[in-house]
Write a structure and sequence with these properties.
single chain; 5 strands; 2 domains; 13 helices; disordered C terminus; elongated; KilA/APSES_HTH; alpha+beta; 280 residues
Length: 280
């Protein structure tokens, strides 16, 4: 059903958010547990018996599910609200081909619903609980977006560094140069960028931070990574033009100073990077 589960806490109740291929699904079982821990399944079935619920689910499926079965849906809608009418999530899914609800057996199973439907169920449980659920769910999404932005920019830096090392290989390394010396050239060019932006080489950083894993770039904030990506492109161009390394280092340092001043001062850049990430 899901590739990844996450937890959010809403008014003291732990709610599971399941990362489906199409969207986020929220556990109705956990939401019902907030109301009555011993009768979660009964609460969900009682909610499904309601005519307004059936009509809401039907409209949602019509909008989002081209394989939804309208004839079977009409049968449920006609019976909804009658004293004799009962309906389980599994019956709803199997009869109508619904995709908005997911029913899973087992220890870590339960009933999950697309966030649109989950918020509707939460409102039936408690309007106050629904508002807190939306707030915590939005907070989770914001955290995921910040993490995604960081990963994208880190990947961009790595891609640009590949362009940079290719330029080093093509223009600075003779064909017959031994592999050991090739590595030394790469290290030297990497440290040109490190010196331009961070003011120290990779070895100097490791000597100053013996207890940290990774390298100096793993501890850069997003603003620095954006600047680093620009420096890598510029250095690759200047290598191709045959500019000597000392001259490139001086130019790169000037560019780094100018760009970091702009990036850290500009309001839109601060909004892009996020306060917490810049403090990484």
């Amino acid at each position: 059903m899901a590739k990844k589960n996450q937890k959010i806490e809403v008014q003291g109740t732990e709610i599971t958010v399941s990362k489906n291929d199409l969207a986020d699904f929220i556990s109705l079982t956990d939401i019902a547990r907030h109301k009555n821990p011993g009768r979660t399944d009964d609460l969900i079935r009682n909610w499904l018996r309601n005519r307004n619920t059936i009509e809401f689910l039907g409209i949602w499926e019509h909008l989002n599910n081209p394989n939804f079965k309208p004839v079977e849906f009409d049968g449920f809608r006609m019976q909804a609200g009658l004293n004799s009418f009962t309906l389980t999530p599994k019956q709803w899914i199997e009869k109508t081909g619904a995709i908005g609800l997911i029913s899973k057996a087992g220890r870590y199973g339960g009933t999950f619903a697309h966030k649109d439907i989950a918020f509707e169920f939460a409102s039936w449980i408690s309007v106050e609980f629904k508002l807190y659920l939306i707030k915590e769910f939005q907070r989770l999404q914001e955290q995921e977006q910040k993490s995604l932005d960081w990963n994208v920019k880190r990947s961009l830096s790595k891609i640009n560094y590949r362009i940079h090392t290719d330029a080093v290989k093509e223009h600075l390394i003779p064909d017959e140069l031994p592999a050991k010396k090739v590595n030394l050239v790469y290290a030297s060019e990497a440290d040109v960028l490190n010196m331009a932006l961070f003011g120290k080489t990779a070895k100097q950083w490791r000597d100053e931070n013996p207890g940290k894993e990774g390298n100096i770039r793993d501890y850069a904030n997003v603003t620095q990574l954006v600047c680093l990506a620009n420096l890598e492109n510029l250095n690759a161009v200047w290598i191709e033009e045959g500019l000597p390394q000392p001259d490139r280092l001086q130019r790169l340092n000037q560019v780094a100073i100018q760009q970091m001043q702009l990036l850290t001062r500009d309001v839109s850049a601060k909004r892009l990077t996020g306060k917490d990430i810049d403090k990484k």
